[in-house]
Every structure is written in structure tokens, then in C-alpha cells.
Specification:
Length: 137
Amino acid sequence: MTEIEKTLSDHKVRPTAMRILIYKYLAQQKIALALLDIETAFAKAERSTIFRTLKTFEENGIVHQIEDGTGINKYALCEPGCNCEIDQDLHLHFHCSNCDETVCLTEHKIPHINLPDGYVAEDVNLVVTGVCEKCSS
């Protein structure tokens, strides 16, 4: 069993050929990708298969979805050991206004936010917008 197959199995996801390919593709990327980017990379695959794969990955804690303010949701692999729990695993994202790329800043965690009584957080997303390291050089 390959490392990717083990990762998928550990997350209760059956490691089909397409799921392995999409996982491998996401693992090779340094940036978060829009659904259209992934569909373009797998032009011969059914679009619905790609979408269902991403949703399965998201539901099982393999990828997380990023709303970076562009109106297009992006996807990135979760780091090892991530459960996408609000109190532990959330990190900053950076969206470059120059190159339009969004990256996960996994080493910069979002601190716990105390909400007033009666409020229940379901998701937290913090995106910093500016010029990335590549564009500012």
C-alpha cells in the first residue's frame, strides 16, 4: 500500500485511481487551487467525479476549502494530523493581490476566539491580502 493509499484509508476514504491522482496532484502544489484549476489538470475526467472527490476529501478531513475573498473557493490539502477543528487546526491564508495565488500559512495558527454566550462557531477563515514573497522580490 502506498503512502497516499494509506492516508486515504486512514481517513476512511476508499483509494480509487482518481482519488489517488487528485491527492497526488494537490500534494505537488504550493498553492490552493480552484475547482476549475483541478478540472483543467484532469481535462479527460468527468467534472462531477472531480467535484465529488473534493467534497469527499473535505468531509473526511483530507482537504480544506478556502474562501479567499475572490468569490472562488479554493482547496488545499490538510496538514498531517489535522482534524480541521476550530480550536486547534485553523491557520492563516494569504492571497496575493498581484499574482492572485492563495497559500496556506500552516505555521501561523488562528488563535481561539471567545464568542458571546449563545454563539456557536462552525467555521473560521482568516485571509490576509497583500503581495506575496515571490511578487515582492
